[in-house]
Amino acid sequence: MNLPPKVTDRAFERLAEINSGAARQQPLRVAVAGGGCSGFQYDIRMDDQADDDLVLEHDGQKVLVDPVSLPFLAGAVIDYSDELIGARFTIENPNATSSCGCGTSFSI
């Protein structure tokens, strides 16, 4: 059995900040697509919920993962990083055998 991805409190807090000024709350979608310099790449964006999405929810904030991406993200940790070089949602993926320097693409 594959473990579902986990979302950190820091990532949910940042999502709440993003949604605080919005007319409507919108979930964050974390998906995997083919491409990037390592074979697969993460697609992280605000999106609407589909019927078959896995929904990870905390304090009214939602992170969505589609069924095709779910096996690639099993056991992954979705976090938010705010460092001197930039701020972004990050993914620590135990399934990735290698990843690019920017952390947006990986291989399995």
From TrEMBL:
InterPro entries for the chain: ATAP (IPR016092), ATAP_core_dom (IPR000361), FeS_cluster_insertion_CS (IPR017870), HesB-like_dom_sf (IPR035903)
Domain of life from the UniProt record: Bacteria
Residue ranges constituting the Core domain according to the UniProt record: 6-103
Protein name, entry field: Iron-sulfur cluster insertion protein ErpA
Source species: Paracoccus pacificus
